[in-house]
Amino acid sequence: MLSPYYIQLVILVGINTIMASSLNLIIGYTGQLSIGHAAFMSIGAYASALVTVHFNFPFIASLLFGALVATLFGLLIGAPTLKLKGDYLAIATLGFCEIVRIVFLNLDITGGSVGLRGIPKKTTLLTVVVAVLITIFVLNRIINSRIGRALIAIREDETAAESMGINTTYYKVICFGVGAFFGGLGGGLFAHFFRFIQPNSFGFMCSIEHLCMVVLGGMGSMWGAFIGATAITAIPELLRFLGDFADYRMVIYGAILVIMMRVRPQGIIGQRLSADQVSIGEKLFNRWAGMGTGGKRG
Amino acid sequence: MFVQQLMNGVILGSTYALIALGYTMVYGIIELINFAHGEIYMFGAFVGLLLVTVLDIPFFLAFLLAMALGSLLGVTVEYLAYRPLRRSSRLSALISAIGASFFLSNLALLIMGSQPFSFPNPFEAKIYHTPLFIISRVEITVLLSSLILMIALTFFVQRTKIGKAMRATAQDKDTASLMGINIDRIITITFAVGSALGAAAGVMVGIYFRTVTPTMGFMPGLKGFVAAVLGGIGNIPGAMLGGILLGIAEVMGAAYISSQYRDAVAFALLIIILLFKPAGLLGRPAQEKV
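Above: the input entities. Below: the C-alpha cells describing the complete assembly.
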C-alpha cells in the first residue's frame, strides 16, 4: 500500500499535471506566453475554499465555482491583451499575477498574509486522478477540434491564420479562458488538499515552476506536460538525500529555461515549433515574392 | 502638498525612465522584452553597495563602476541567452529571457541571502527648503544624474555614428547590414548602453530608498516595462516621458487613493494603455509586414 508520503507526492503530481497541461494549451498549442498561471490557481483556490468554508458548498460545486471565477478573470485579463502581439501578454499576465497576490494579501476575507486556514480536507487521490483524466480528456478534445486547429494555426503564423478567416483574438481568448478554468480547478484541488492557503504560495515562482514543467516536458504535447509535471515535482523529492536542494531549485529552474531553449526547444517529447525551422523556405518564398528576407521574424 | 507629491513622483519616475530606456532600446532593435533587465538593475545596486561599503570606494567612482559592470552583465546575458536564439521563434527567445531573469535573481538570493542590505548615505543628509517643496541632497543627485544620463543618451543616439547605426538597425536590420553595419556589434552596444542605464538606476534607487535586496529588480523591472509601453515601446523620448508619468501616477495613487495598492497603479495603467492606445503616447502604430 502507498504510504501517505507517496500519496501526497502523487496528488501533487496530479495537481501540477492539471496546471501544466492547461498552461500548455496557452503556450504550447497557441504560442501565447502566459507567465502568470499561478494567478488562476490562486483565484481558484481562494474562491473554492471560501465558498466551502462560508457557504458549505459541496466539494464538486466549490471546485466548479473556483474554476469559473478563474475563467472570468482569465477572460477579463485576456480580452484586452490578446488583441495585441504576444509579448504584451507575458507582461500583463506577470503583472496580473502580482496584483492578485497583493489584493489577496490585503483583503480581510482571505486572511491577508496569515492565509486562509481551516479548509476541510476533501481532495483525495481518487478525486485528483479523476480531475486529471477529465482535464486531459477535455483538452485533448479541444486540441483535436476546429478550435484546436485554429489555435495551432495561430501559433504557426498569426497573420496567415487571420488571412484564412480565423478570428485570432476570439480563439486566443477562448484558449485563455479554458486555460484559466483548469488552472482554477487545480487551485481548488490544492486548497482542499493542504487545507491552508496563503497568497505567497501562488507568486511568480509558482508561475515559473509551471512554465518550467511545460518547457521541460515539451510544448505542444499532452504527454510532455505530464512528464514535465512529474519530473519537476518528483525530482526535488528524490534528491532530498543530497541535502537542502530547495536552495538551488529556483536557480536550476532559470537555467533549465535558458538551456532548453538553446538545446532542445521542443522539450523532452514536444513538437518542434515550426517557426524554428521555416526560415530557409520562408527566405526563398520572400525572395521569390521580392519582399526582403523575412528577417523581421528573428 | 500637491507640488511636493509631484516632485516625489518626478524623482521616482526618473529612475523608472532610466530602466524603461533599457527595455525600449533593446525592444527597438531585436523586438524582445529583455526580462533580465530588472536583474541588471538589482546587480547595479549590489555592485554599488559592495564597492562603497566593502572596498570603501568614493561614491561617484562606485557609481561609474557599477554602470560598467552592469553593462558587462547585460552583454553576457545577451551573448549566452539571446544570441543563440536570434533565428528561433519569438516564444523561445521570450522563455529564455524569463529563464535568465529568474536565474540571476535567484543566484543573487543564494549568494547574498534574503536579508535586505542598507545602503550607506554617501552624502551628508542635507535638506533644502523651497517655497513649494522640500528636497534632499540625495534627491537632487538622483534627479540630476538621471537628467545628465538621458541627455547623454539622446546625444549618443542622435549625433554619433554608432547611434545612427543603431537607429538604422532598429528600422530595418537587413537593409542596415547591407549598408555595412555590423548588426551583432550594434546589438551588443545596445545591450551595453541599456544595461549601464539600468545599473545606474539601481544605484540611484539604492541611495534613494537605502535598501538593496536580491529580489528588488522584479517590480521596478515590470514598471520600467510599463513605462516603456506607456511612452511607446522602441521610442527613446517616449520611455523618458513614460517613466516620469508612471512615477507621478504611482506617487499620486499612493498619496490620494491607497498606499497598499501602489504597485497596482502601474498595472492598471498598462491595461488602460493596451485598451486605448497600444502604440503608446509617442509611438506610431506598427505596420505588420508580411
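Note for the figure: Chain B has a mean pLDDT of 85.
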